[in-house]
Amino acid sequence: MYKTIKYLSMSLILILSACGGNDSNKNGNIEYPERTHKNGRSEIVLTKHQLEHISIETEMPVTKEVDIPLVLRGKAALNEVMTAHITSRIKGRVEKVYAVISDRVKRGQPIVDLYSQDFIALQSEFVQAEERLKRMKASDTDYSTAHSIYESARKKLEVVGLMESEIEQLADKHTPYTVISVRAPFDGTLISGGPSLPNEFGRAEAGVRLGEFVDVGKEFFVLANLQNIWILANVFENDLPLIKEGITGEITINAFPDEVYKGKLTRIYDIVEPASRTVKARFEVANHSGKLKPEMYVSVLVASKLGGTNPKIKSTALLKEKENNYVFVAVNDTTFQKRNVEAGRETKDYTEIIKGLNAGEKVVTKGTFYLKSELAKDTFAEDE
Fold it and tell me: Which partner from 20, 203, 256, 379 sits 20 to 30 angstroms from 36, CA to CA?
């Protein structure tokens, strides 16, 4: 009898404990309901506990034009329009060298003096033609021919580099010049020259040596105006719709990161480089400080625009899965739905959505990878 009563008492205690345990779980479910997974592996419901320990941020897509800060990498280069090859236009011997590499010269400044028998012969031809023309009258039958010969002789002197004032002086005094000067066509810096004696760095300082005999076309120097520099920036082909000629960019040099230069985009090249899938964009930059030097690495920041009426989301919201793109749409504060979308133009900051989103819906912009991992856990559990 005692054993029977003891057994019934213990059974009653177990039943009451079980009931009490169910109440406790019920209350726990109210605070922290189990995570559920619905709609064919496309929806995640997070618990209060999960939401307290992760950071989920959502935003509505924008349909207006948005600013896209685009950073382009590139290099400084010579302004080819303001670059010239300084060459000999006549045979002769070098009588004097006025400048060496890295010297800055002014427009019209002599760089090399040449003694040339051909130059003396051209001057003699001009003097004879000029004297003959002076002796004739405009009414003479041979005047037209004499005038043509004079103009031809004058033009030859201009071609070999004689200045207008020098030609006028030759016409007045009939005294030939001993040497002809090779002059700078514009202000600039001499940046290279022909073979010469090497300096301590293994490069030629002078473009030509004193006493050297030169032929027509002999290059003495390359002259470049370094006050105006080109920036050749690389633009990925997907970013081409975001830029256009005429926009400005802020250029920073890796060597001087605290200094910013303004440049104007003057040309977008027509060729895509196969290896990098980029196109060159040319910016023109004033370089009055002289700190920008050819071949320096630079960054160009342009304020581009992404327009159109299609919704645009932050690029952090877009996830990729094999051939598909998808986002997580916030159904409510705790429920998030995986939604396949068709993406248009993609940039670092924004992505255009062509299809898949409805007006007024919010997409997850932060915490997407947590939702992706939660979805993967459910998928893995159901597959088991």
Answer: 20
